[in-house]
Structures are given as structure tokens and as C-alpha cells.
Design a protein that fits this description.
The chain is mainly α. The chain has a domain of 77 residues: Orthogonal Bundle (Rna Polymerase Sigma Factor, Chain: A). The chain contains nine helices and no strands. Helix 2 crosses helix 3, helix 3 crosses helix 4 and helix 4 crosses helix 8. The chain starts with a helix and ends with a helix.
Length: 163
């Protein structure tokens, strides 16, 4: 018999894809990882303890896969939107604002890539994925105060890098 939560896991697919795309910046790899995350979640649904939201549990699986992907794809760090802006088809000729936005996004991506891993992970979960501090703390397995300080420090470092 199919677990009734399986449908809920499948509905999280778009959110998981967006999260992974923000984390690794490559649509093809994000699609592959998303499929793997959904499969792993469905296969392990019986292990879900319900002490957190199902979406937090699935994002946690995605987060661990992103970490693993980064280790195996060392040095291949690209973040939010580097290929996303280029992939948007348009019949309109590019305008100056497009280039400004793309350049600023690339600057931000480079700055995020230079953050120490613990700060990068915290800012990714809280600011880009818009998880609560509590959810991010649960995914990373650290106290909430640690998440708060990592996000604060990451924002400081990004401000300094983007001045």
C-alpha cells in the first residue's frame, strides 16, 4: 500500500528543484539531484519520524545531496542564476538593465562562493530558501543560536565583499 504522504513528497518537487538550483546553479545537475532526492525521500518515508515538517525533512535530504555533490564536483561552484538568466528565451534585444542585473548576480554568486562553508550553508537555507532559523538548525544539526550567528556573519561578509 502506498504511503499517503508520498503524494505530499511528490508535490515538493518544485521546491526541492528551486533549492538545489540555488545551491549549485546548474539546471541539469539540479534536475538529476531533484529526482534522486524525491526517490530517496519516497524510499525512506517509513523512517520519517514526524518530529518536523515533511518539507523540512525532504529539504534536509536535498541539502545532504547538495553537500555530497559539492564534494564530488570540487571547484565547480556556481550559485543562483548564472545559467538561469542565460536560459530565459526572449525575442527582445537585451537591454542595459539585463546586463547590470546579470553582472550583479554574478558578483553576488562569487561572493557567496567565497564564504566559509558553514556560513554559506546557513545563508543558503535561511535567506535564499527562506527556511526558519529553527528549520535550518534542524537540517544542519546545530543549535539555533549557531544558525543566527552564522547568518549574521555571512551577511556581514557579503556586505563587505560587495561594497
Amino acid at each position: 500500500m502506498l504511503d499517503p504522504r508520498a503524494n505530499e513528497v511528490a508535490q515538493l518537487r518544485a521546491r526541492v528543484f528551486r533549492f538545489i538550483l540555488k545551491a549549485i546553479g546548474h539546471a541539469g545537475d539540479a534536475e538529476d539531484l531533484t529526482q534522486r532526492v524525491i526517490l530517496v525521500a519516497l524510499e525512506n518515508l517509513k523512517n520519517f519520524r514526524q518530529d518536523a515538517a515533511l518539507s523540512t525533512w525532504v529539504i534536509g535530504i536535498a541539502f545532504n545531496m547538495v553537500r555530497s555533490h559539492r564534494r564530488t564536483a570540487a571547484g565547480n561552484r556556481r550559485f543562483v542564476g548564472e545559467d538561469a538568466l542565460e536560459a530565459v528565451p526572449s525575442n527582445d534585444p537585451p537591454i542595459a538593465e539585463h546586463y547590470v542585473v546579470r553582472d550583479e548576480l554574478q558578483r553576488l554568486n562569487r561572493a557567496i562562493a567565497t564564504l566559509p562553508e558553514e556560513f554559506r550553508e546557513a545563508i543558503l537555507l535561511v535567506s535564499l530558501e527562506e527556511l526558519s532559523y529553527e528549520q535550518a538548525a534542524e537540517i544542519l544539526g546545530v543549535p539555533i543560536g549557531t544558525i543566527r550567528s552564522r547568518v549574521f556573519r555571512a551577511r556581514q561578509l557579503l556586505r563587505a565583499a560587495l561594497v
